């Protein structure tokens, strides 16, 4: 039942990292989500990271069919899902084998012993049973015959088949973990009531198993003491837990409402971006037009058509899809139409690592088109601020009449965190360049003097009929022009137009120290890991390390050079081989940029970062 | 649905200030002139007319029509046009495309736009050759055809646009010779009036790279005997002397002569373009001699916009959300004090 080596002390912890792992069919995503939502409502700060295979249902018990959900909860600010784990819940041998590396020595492991059969051990390629061979001696192992206990708990519930019974065992583990961390069962029981509204037997079964796990942990005193994690000090307000992709979708909803335009999404399913499509198709009540196209190209071209006709038009994709959209994005650059392209990055090249994270599409976003074709490139950095940057992408596209590429990644897109809810009223205004008035000598490429954005005359407006297209335009009339000097003029205008966006975005701010020995630079979805690593090293007494995080990549904030010049060394940390560093080297060539790069499909590990920082100071 | 114009236009109102740059003698001129004449008849306000094209000779079309338009990228006009129409269903949306643009590089979009049945119109300029890139074989070029990229003869079997379209669920398909402005104008009008995606194949002569490829069908002297111009509700009759017709013999269409073997006009098939079952339309599309022209299929079906509108109305009626704030504060939220 339980190893007698467990000697838990009563603990009040600041933060704890828990990972639930099991077979793809074991319901680990649900278990993890329930635990993180409950903790957030309790007042903890949280960060989560699901890690699942790209196979929908990999063979049961196999190593590659393991699905996991990691959650970091804290009474202090939590900015990453954490790398090493304080509590590992492993539902089968394959899950144990693939995840035990992450558990901190001396920390707790909960195991469903019923799943440690010869067959499952073979599938996990164990030659000896890890529960018997001493390989887990360094951990506090809690062995629970969870499947049997679940069956026992459900013996009086009528109308359940064996499959349903064995699938509820995840709730047993959740019940145990709730007790260990002093969490209420209320939120999860509410969830059962809603989810299984029409199937009362499932509400009863899941509630019973959850309670059974909870009381198993409590009344049998198998776990001497529970942990407590107090509520975090967070800004007052109304919160909800939000996933990055949902936040992205909602940012566009807010932008559409604020700008008074209808939202059009042209999209084609691709991991890990599809959840944005899933979210936006729900919102027909707001007049959202979500069009699932026949391919990535039709996704972007339909959006270009909708933009021409006056909608706030977006398209969503991941790396390979961005490659397919490249030519059409060039058309939107040439026709100077507002368009947002979301790229939820994943590991590449080619099909690469569809469910893993990477920041390797930056150069594709910057340069991945024929001709000189500058676009605005911005990147979100946390699950919650995907909302802000989706909104910002829409604002910049409309105000500057240009495509904007918004980069997120699989890590923040699927991660979730508390979001202090924003009302549309508190979001910044969004202007657009729509015109309806017919003026003498009007041309479609007449521009705003300050921003160089052209005016936007949409079909249906009498007197402003005009034709645009992919051929080079005369700088004055907008008609086709093959004039050599005109082409250079237009190339320069397109570049200058993007460059001037820097006057419409905030300056970059450095954290921890605004001058010193080392500036750590990150961009996009690595904010959590980098921020907490720099914070940790500062807490350890290294006060001369600053941190700058870039959300605006093209153009960069106008004070970039000023902040770069305040540090002796600059270290650019990225989940690629140095793409942002290469852009910095081109644009700020007088500085030397050191690099720290990882391309393993995973977020940065804290220890690796700390070690690198220490080498440099 | 498009609103009707109050103003009465003339062809001149739809003529842009751009110099037309097709080769002299090209059928494209006929198509352009016919469209400029047909548009005023349609009664759509000029600002509500949108022409979208891809790449190729035919795709220059939007520049010459004084309305809104996009000359886009190769093969992608259907995507752009779909976005335009879904964004503003009040617009009359037209696509000008060619055989290469629609059926080679844009083949995927072409079949899907037909499948969806969005209310827009496609004019397919079929000249069985790539003109703008100067003379390579296209997906409608014939086997054996000698072109710049098939000097010893083309080895790739051609598509028939009509067959492809019907296979892709096209509800409206018409075919017309490039030198027949009268019929063409009539077909443009019917396409405009049709609710759903309409496809018009124009047999368009390329005077430079494939000159005369349709002469055996479209020449004045042979036209009446080599073409059967179909009209809904009328018998399938053709010939210089209006004495030939089509009957169904087992599973094949057969040409008969009125007055021979006791055949009278009553024996001939009567064209039903509005029939849902496309079997006979398919046979007509495949018929080589006489070649079927006119509106071959015009089946009234629900459009994508109608389905979407109905769903949206239903979702709106059942939703308590009117503002995004309602959504943001819905469900599980919690207070931090």
From TrEMBL, chain A:
<feature type="domain" description="Pyruvate flavodoxin/ferredoxin oxidoreductase pyrimidine binding">
    <location>
        <begin position="264"/>
        <end position="474"/>
    </location>
</feature>
<keyword id="KW-0560">Oxidoreductase</keyword>
<dbReference type="GO" id="GO:0016903">
    <property type="term" value="F:oxidoreductase activity, acting on the aldehyde or oxo group of donors"/>
</dbReference>
<dbReference type="InterPro" id="IPR009014">
    <property type="entry name" value="Transketo_C/PFOR_II"/>
</dbReference>
<dbReference type="InterPro" id="IPR022367">
    <property type="entry name" value="2-oxoacid/accept_OxRdtase_asu"/>
</dbReference>
<dbReference type="InterPro" id="IPR002869">
    <property type="entry name" value="Pyrv_flavodox_OxRed_cen"/>
</dbReference>
<dbReference type="Pfam" id="PF01558">
    <property type="entry name" value="POR"/>
</dbReference>
<dbReference type="InterPro" id="IPR029061">
    <property type="entry name" value="THDP-binding"/>
</dbReference>
<protein>
    <submittedName>
        <fullName>2-oxoacid:acceptor oxidoreductase subunit alpha</fullName>
    </submittedName>
</protein>
<dbReference type="Pfam" id="PF01855">
    <property type="entry name" value="POR_N"/>
</dbReference>
<feature type="domain" description="Pyruvate/ketoisovalerate oxidoreductase catalytic">
    <location>
        <begin position="25"/>
        <end position="214"/>
    </location>
</feature>
<dbReference type="InterPro" id="IPR002880">
    <property type="entry name" value="Pyrv_Fd/Flavodoxin_OxRdtase_N"/>
</dbReference>
<dbReference type="InterPro" id="IPR050722">
    <property type="entry name" value="Pyruvate:ferred/Flavod_OxRd"/>
</dbReference>
<dbReference type="GO" id="GO:0006979">
    <property type="term" value="P:response to oxidative stress"/>
</dbReference>
<dbReference type="InterPro" id="IPR019752">
    <property type="entry name" value="Pyrv/ketoisovalerate_OxRed_cat"/>
</dbReference>
From TrEMBL, chain B:
<dbReference type="InterPro" id="IPR051457">
    <property type="entry name" value="2-oxoacid:Fd_oxidoreductase"/>
</dbReference>
<dbReference type="GO" id="GO:0016625">
    <property type="term" value="F:oxidoreductase activity, acting on the aldehyde or oxo group of donors, iron-sulfur protein as acceptor"/>
</dbReference>
<dbReference type="Pfam" id="PF02775">
    <property type="entry name" value="TPP_enzyme_C"/>
</dbReference>
<dbReference type="InterPro" id="IPR029061">
    <property type="entry name" value="THDP-binding"/>
</dbReference>
<keyword id="KW-0560">Oxidoreductase</keyword>
<protein>
    <submittedName>
        <fullName>2-oxoacid:ferredoxin oxidoreductase subunit beta</fullName>
    </submittedName>
</protein>
<dbReference type="InterPro" id="IPR011766">
    <property type="entry name" value="TPP_enzyme_TPP-bd"/>
</dbReference>
<dbReference type="GO" id="GO:0030976">
    <property type="term" value="F:thiamine pyrophosphate binding"/>
</dbReference>
<dbReference type="GO" id="GO:0044281">
    <property type="term" value="P:small molecule metabolic process"/>
</dbReference>
<feature type="domain" description="Thiamine pyrophosphate enzyme TPP-binding">
    <location>
        <begin position="55"/>
        <end position="202"/>
    </location>
</feature>
<dbReference type="GO" id="GO:0045333">
    <property type="term" value="P:cellular respiration"/>
</dbReference>
């Amino acid at each position: 039942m339980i190893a007698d080596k467990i000697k838990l002390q009563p603990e009040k912890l600041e933060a704890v990292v828990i990972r639930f792992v099991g077979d793809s069919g074991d319901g680990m995503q649900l278990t993890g989500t329930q635990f993180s939502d409950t903790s957030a409502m309790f007042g903890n700060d949280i960060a989560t990271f699901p890690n699942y295979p790209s196979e929908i249902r990999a063979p049961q018990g196999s190593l590659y069919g393991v699905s996991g959900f990691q959650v970091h909860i804290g009474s202090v600010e939590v900015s990453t899902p954490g790398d090493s784990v304080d509590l590992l819940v492993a539902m089968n041998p394959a899950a144990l084998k693939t995840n035990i590396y992450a558990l901190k020595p001396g920390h707790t492991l909960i195991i469903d012993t019923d799943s440690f059969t010869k067959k499952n051990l073979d599938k996990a390629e164990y030659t000896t049973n890890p529960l018997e061979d001493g390989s887990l001696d360094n951990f506090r192992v809690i062995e629970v015959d969870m499947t049997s206990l679940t069956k026992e708990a459900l013996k009086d519930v009528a109308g359940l088949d064996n499959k349903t019974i064995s699938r509820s065992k995840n709730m047993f583990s959740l019940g145990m973990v709730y007790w260990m961390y002093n969490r209420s069962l209320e939120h999860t029981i509410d969830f059962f009531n809603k989810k299984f509204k029409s199937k009362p037997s499932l509400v009863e079964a899941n509630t019973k198993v959850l309670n059974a796990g909870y009381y198993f942990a409590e009344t049998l005193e198998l776990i001497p003491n529970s942990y407590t994690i107090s509520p975090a000090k967070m800004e007052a307000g109304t919160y909800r837990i939000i996933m990055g992709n949902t936040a992205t979708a909602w940012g566009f909803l807010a932008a559409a409402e604020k700008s008074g335009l209808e939202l059009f999404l042209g999209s084609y399913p691709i991991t890990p971006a599809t959840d944005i499509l899933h979210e936006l198709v729900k919102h027909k009540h707001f007049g959202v037009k979500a069009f699932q196209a026949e391919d990535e190209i039709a996704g972007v071209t339909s959006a270009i058509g909708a933009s021409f006709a006056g909608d706030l038009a977006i398209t969503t994709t991941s790396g390979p899809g961005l490659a397919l959209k490249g030519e059409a994005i060039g058309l939107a650059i040439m026709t100077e139409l507002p368009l947002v392209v979301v790229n939820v990055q994943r590991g590449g090249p080619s099909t690469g690592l569809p469910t893993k994270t990477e920041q390797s599409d930056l150069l594709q976003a910057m340069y991945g088109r024929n001709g000189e074709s500058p676009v605005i490139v911005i990147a979100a950095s946390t699950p919650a601020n995907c909302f802000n940057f989706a909104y910002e992408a829409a604002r910049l596209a409309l105000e500057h009449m240009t495509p904007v590429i918004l980069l997120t990644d699989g890590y923040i897109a699927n991660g979730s965190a508390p979001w202090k809810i924003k009302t549309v009223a508190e979001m910044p205004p969004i202007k657009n360049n729509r015109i309806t008035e017919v003026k003498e000598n009007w041309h479609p490429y007449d521009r705003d003097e300050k921003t160089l954005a052209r005016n936007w005359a949409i079909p249906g407006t009498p007197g402003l009929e005009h034709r645009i297209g992919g051929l080079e335009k005369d700088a004055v009339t907008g008609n086709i022009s093959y004039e050599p000097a005109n082409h250079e003029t237009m190339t320069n205008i397109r570049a200058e137009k993007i460059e001037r966006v820097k006057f419409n975005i905030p300056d970059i701010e450095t954290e921890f120290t605004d001058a010193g020995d080392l500036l750590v630079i990150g961009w996009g979805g690595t904010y959590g890991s980098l921020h907490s690593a720099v914070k940790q090293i500062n807490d350890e007494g290294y006060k001369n390390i600053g941190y700058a995080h870039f959300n605006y990549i093209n153009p960069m904030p106008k004070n970039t050079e000023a902040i770069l010049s305040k540090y002796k060394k600059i270290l650019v940390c990225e989940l690629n081989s140095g793409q942002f560093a290469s852009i910095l080297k081109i644009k700020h060539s007088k500085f030397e940029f050191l690099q720290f790069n990882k391309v393993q499909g995973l977020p940065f590990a804290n220890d690796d970062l700390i070690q690198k920082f220490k080498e440099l100071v | 649905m498009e609103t009707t114009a109050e103003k009465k236009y003339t062809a001149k109102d739809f003529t842009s200030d751009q110099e037309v740059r097709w080769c002299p003698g090209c059928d494209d001129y006929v198509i352009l002139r016919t469209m400029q004449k047909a548009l005023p008849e349609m009664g759509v306000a000029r600002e509500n007319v949108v022409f979208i094209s891809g790449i190729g000779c035919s795709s220059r079309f939007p520049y010459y029509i004084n309305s809104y338009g996009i000359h886009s990228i190769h093969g992608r006009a259907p995507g752009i046009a779909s976005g335009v129409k879904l964004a503003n269903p009040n617009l009359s949306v037209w696509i000008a495309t060619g055989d290469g643009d629609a059926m080679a590089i844009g083949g995927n979009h072409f079949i899907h736009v037909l499948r969806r049945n969005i209310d827009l119109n496609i004019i397919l300029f079929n000249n069985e050759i790539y003109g703008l890139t100067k003379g390579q074989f296209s997906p409608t070029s014939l086997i054996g055809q000698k072109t710049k990229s098939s000097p010893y003869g083309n080895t790739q079997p051609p598509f028939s646009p009509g067959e492809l379209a019907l296979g892709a669920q096209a509800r409206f398909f018409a075919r017309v010779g490039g030198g027949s402005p009268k019929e063409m104008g009539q077909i443009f009008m019917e396409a405009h009036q049709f609710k759903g995606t309409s496809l018009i194949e124009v047999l368009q002569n390329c005077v430079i790279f494939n000159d005369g490829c349709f002469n055996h069908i479209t020449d004045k002297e042979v036209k009446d005997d080599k073409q059967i111009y179909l009209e809904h509700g009328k018998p399938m009759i053709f010939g210089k002397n209006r004495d030939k017709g089509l009957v169904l013999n087992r599973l094949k269409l057969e040409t008969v002569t009125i007055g021979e073997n006791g055949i009278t006009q009553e024996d001939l098939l009567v064209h039903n373009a509005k029939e849902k079952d496309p079997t006979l339309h398919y046979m007509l599309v495949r018929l080589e001699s006489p070649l079927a022209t006119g509106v071959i299929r015009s089946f009234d079906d629900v459009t994508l916009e109608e389905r979407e509108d109905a769903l949206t109305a239903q979702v709106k009626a059942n939703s308590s959300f009117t503002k995004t704030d309602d959504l943001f504060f819905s469900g599980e939220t919690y207070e931090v004090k």
